[in-house]
Sequence to fold (60 residues):
Amino acid sequence: MLMATLVELMDAHRVVALPVHDCIIVPVSQKDLWVEVFKRNFEEVCGLTPEVIVTGLSLP
Fold:
């Protein structure tokens, strides 16, 4: 799921995302897109809707 999300973000949306252990780091401006793409990929693979927790936001 993480790799599918990374590939889709780059190929379809031109968003660079960095995988770190069990999370993905994306620009704050792309948070909503990342949540949408990740949830869809997770549901396709697992058949469940994930709970997504976003942390570390620092908005100017």
Remarks:
- The CA atoms of residues 31 and 54 lie 8 Å apart.
- The two ends are 31 Å apart (CA to CA).
- Helices lie at 2-13, 31-46.
- The chain has two helices and two strands.
